[in-house]
Amino acid sequence: MHKSRGLIPGQTREQARAGLKPGNFQGRPPRGVRSHEAERASADAMESHWFGTSRFKRRARVTSMEALTSTGTVRLGFEVADGEPFEFLPGQFVGIEAHFEGRGYRRSPYCILSEPARAPHFDLLVRAIPEGPLSLYLAALQVGDEVLFRGPTGRSMIPRFDDRELVLMATGTGVAPLFSMAHHLLAAGYPHPISLWWGLRLVDDICLTDELDALAGTYDQFSYAITLSQPPPGWTGLCGRLGESVPPLLETLGGKRYYLVGNGAMLEEMEMALSDLGVVQHCIYKEPYFDPIHQPDREIVARIRERFVATDLFSAYAARRGSDLDLDRDLEAARTGKAGNGDPMAVSDLFELLPAFLSHHPDQDDPKPTHVERPWNRPY
Length: 380
Prior knowledge:
Blueprint: H1 13-19, H2 36-51, E1 58-67, E2 73-80, E3 93-100, E4 104-111, E5 121-127, H3 133-139, E6 146-153, E7 165-171, H4 175-187, E8 194-200, H5 209-218, E9 222-228, E10 238-239, H6 242-245, E11 256-263, H7 264-276, E12 284-290, H8 298-307, H9 316-320, H10 324-336, H11 347-359
Parallel strand pairs: 7-8, 7-11, 8-9, 9-10, 11-12
Antiparallel strand pairs: 1-2, 1-6, 2-5, 3-4, 3-6
């Protein structure tokens, strides 16, 4: 067997890697029956070849490291150390890489916490967890250490138009890009309210409140609230998951953009509930941090939907069997492009009238709306 085309049982990982030619990702297995050891050695060689070469060429130096919570959340400050340009927009991320003995290179993306004006400095919010070796590596860094990274890259969260209120919902470290965006937009004079709703599990998970309080104290249009899914006795703040505590507090749903970041289950279920109530999908931005392909539980979605008190969007008429006279008036407004008082309607308002056509079924016995995939909906 030619060494460059296969793996001889008993070879070291370095020998296997050296024997693989460029483009030969997995080599060719030896002929005949393979032992368990040979299978394992082959798998290790495949993994090592894939992770064996660094593709992250940029360097950043740790300038600060702050343990924010007793539950493992840390804030790391970096300065780009390679002299290359570094600019980013809220919502973009950097990929961090580290090498682990016996495991090869491991890489993971982290959304930037700080505002773009601080570049080439940037901060990351990291939750150290036992099953995440890279998070443990980052949490153990010291000032002066250097890391390899790629980026920044990814899509920006900045809204295309400044015509709407922003409702930001995050779980855990998913608050990082929303924190960055709030800083950036408020400093730039965003003209509409921005509210941040942050879901955490324990009171010990709470952090960043000094910065959030400073934002709320500086800008009248900014507000935030933290909701705990496992609140301690005596907790006077919001209780429950975001889908439990937030819907009763949103008096209206129209004229807003919704940003959902973090737990994939929260994202999918909240999006479906909002969509059922008439929020068109182009006004909902989602960024899953984990569980990105979660299948929404219809019963959970129904409970979230029922907690909303807002009745301003027109598909809500179907939910509460509103007056046909009022609905007819609204549909006429959509048809003519004129509001009830004769004033021209904004294009964004016309989008919100579209669900009325879809959800209005006067002869339907079931008063609750069902989720419908609308063909004009597109990702924000």
